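Tip: read the tokens left to right.
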């Protein structure tokens, strides 16, 4: 059974593109008008896409089903596997009580509301976005700010705006990973270009936040802190995204920003402590109630996570792990069954079940290694893991169905139809490409889902007008971050965290203008990357076009793993020693 992709099934490109867009229009309607839950909207959208692919494009039912299954498998592994690992690690720190120590430590650094916003909403929120994502950063940071005495509306609004810069690298880089899977552009290349775009926003956001809170004049009083916070975050975001990949920019940049600001505040303080004129009662103390050993112990799971993810990102380590645990297979009945419109074979990537070298496994191992260090039993952790799966069940369904939908539209030719129509905007398409990402995140609440929906469309549209497709694929992720603050899901999380349930419209009005202004900046940057500064675009080779791989040194990989084990052992001994010393003193 063979199927040749159809580009213009109705013999009129405009009408064909409109029909191809029906599933996307449907998800708009389902989420905005009907206000369906994300997983229901995604499943129904997938059903609509199957009907269009089969009835309009003439795709055989078997190949349509196999294409959907192929995408759903990629959604489950590696994407959901990574998200489960990240959220599980975060959940064990909460369940063990260690996260309360982290929160107290963050709140104790300064009493100034402007600096608290920088530390908690911006830096700590970015760290949480990189470590867990899934709405946790806004919920946690907003509730912390309210506990410190922030006006609830300002607390939620500030945290939503601050959650802009880190979203593309959230949940250990899953938005970039899915963009790579859908577009066939290597994840490092996407990470590099996104990491050359978002640092500009990262420098701007701290000043933006403080001005939003206290006005421009009061923000100048803490300009040294604003500069240190934004520049340190932007630098490490650029550095890690360009040289380590998409998994750690938020974690490392967030921690670096916190540490740099702490060092600054040791030697510099603003002339006066600024607070809101009318503040609710403060419910969270700002005195540090824990020893240095307890603080280090509380941060241990995230330290181990960072070390593990860095190690798992090294090619020799990947090769070593793949040499003992790696299954690769073509989807039966799909390989060699799909042809492009010109009759040439459509390359279908085999499914890779790299269960050892996958970053999600590194996250799970980091969690398991952390358990004795944070005082949690493995039986308790098993219950937390079960609760994590329940917590994420609808997210898993949503991601699997959205990625299945993306693979179906790509294989049937629907995405090419829409791309050809969008290419009619000509040279202006790069300017509008971030809007697609913005729309996707607004609708789904997830940069991961937005990239699954639109990255292939971005690729084919850019290719049709002669623009480097990496520019528009990266723009989908970068533009998407500006839609996060007004996504209904994000608004609902922010409102619930600060006790504003029923007043979501106020929070939306607070953030919407900031969303549009930041989107406009990303649109301009994308247009410049396409035509004025193309030298900023990294060189890359499409994954599907890569026929041979350079063999990495497997023995070097095992050596790196041994070194990692030694480092983790030293860290564990340090934590045990610090806490034993504290116990003796007590």
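Filled-in amino acids:
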């Amino acid at each position: 059974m063979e199927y040749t992709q159809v580009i213009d099934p109705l013999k009129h490109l405009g009408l064909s593109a409109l029909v191809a867009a029906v599933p996307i229009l449907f998800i708009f309607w389902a989420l905005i008008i009907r206000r369906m839950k994300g997983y229901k909207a995604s499943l129904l959208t997938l059903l609509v896409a199957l009907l269009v692919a089969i009835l309009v494009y003439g795709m055989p039912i078997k190949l349509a089903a196999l294409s959907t299954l192929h995408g759903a498998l990629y959604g489950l592994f590696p994407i959901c596997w990574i998200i489960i690992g990240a959220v599980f690690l975060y959940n064990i720190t909460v369940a063990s009580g260690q996260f309360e120590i982290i929160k107290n430590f963050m709140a104790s650094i300064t009493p100034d509301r402007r600096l608290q916003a920088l530390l908690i909403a911006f830096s700590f929120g970015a760290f949480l976005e990189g470590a867990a994502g899934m709405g946790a950063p806004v919920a946690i940071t907003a509730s912390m700010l309210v506990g410190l005495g922030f006006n609830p509306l300002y607390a939620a609004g500030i945290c939503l705006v601050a959650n802009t810069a880190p979203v593309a690298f959230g949940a250990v880089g899953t938005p970039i990973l899915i963009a790579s899977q859908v577009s066939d552009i290597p994840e490092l290349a996407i990470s590099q270009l996104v990491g050359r775009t978002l640092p500009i926003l990262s420098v701007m956001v701290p000043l933006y936040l403080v001005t939003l809170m206290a006005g421009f004049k009061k923000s100048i009083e803490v300009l040294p802190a604003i500069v240190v916070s934004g520049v340190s975050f932007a630098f490490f975001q650029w550095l890690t995204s360009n040289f380590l990949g998409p998994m750690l920019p938020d974690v490392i940049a967030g921690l670096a920003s916190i540490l740099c600001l702490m060092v600054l505040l040791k030697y510099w303080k603003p002339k006066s402590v600024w607070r809101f004129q009318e503040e609710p009662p403060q419910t969270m103390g700002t005195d540090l109630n824990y020893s240095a050993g307890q603080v280090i112990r509380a941060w241990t799971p995230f330290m181990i996570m960072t070390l593990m993810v860095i190690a798992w990102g090294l090619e020799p380590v990947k090769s070593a792990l793949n040499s003992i645990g790696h299954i690769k297979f073509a989807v039966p009945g799909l390989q060699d069954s799909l042809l492009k419109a010109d009759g040439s074979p459509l390359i279908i990537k085999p499914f890779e079940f790299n269960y050892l070298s996958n970053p999600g496994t590194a996250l799970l191992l980091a969690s398991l290694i952390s358990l004795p260090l944070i005082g949690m039993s493995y039986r308790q952790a098993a219950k937390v893991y079960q609760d994590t799966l329940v917590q994420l069940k609808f997210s898993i369904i949503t991601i699997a169905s959205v990625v299945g939908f993306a693979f179906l539209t790509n294989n049937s030719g629907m995405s090419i139809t829409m791309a050809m129509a969008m290419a009619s905007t000509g040279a202006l398409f790069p300017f509008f490409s971030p809007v697609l990402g913005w729309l996707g995140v607004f609708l789904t609440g997830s940069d991961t889902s937005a990239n699954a929906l639109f990255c292939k469309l971005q690729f084919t549209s850019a290719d049709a007008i002669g623009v480097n497709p990496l520019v528009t694929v990266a723009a989908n992720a970068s533009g998407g971050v500006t839609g996060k603050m007004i996504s209904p899901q994000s608004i609902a999380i922010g409102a619930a965290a600060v006790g504003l349930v029923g007043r979501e419209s106020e929070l939306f009005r607070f953030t919407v203008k900031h969303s549009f202004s930041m989107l406009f900046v990303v649109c301009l940057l994308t247009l410049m990357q396409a035509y004025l500064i193309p030298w900023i675009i990294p060189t890359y080779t499409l994954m599907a076009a890569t026929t041979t791989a350079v063999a990495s040194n497997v023995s070097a990989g095992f050596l790196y793993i041994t070194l990692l084990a030694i480092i983790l052992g030293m860290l564990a001994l340090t934590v045990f020693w610090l806490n034993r010393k504290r116990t003796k003193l007590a």
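The chain has 25 helices and four strands. Residues 545-551 have pLDDT under 50 and may be disordered.
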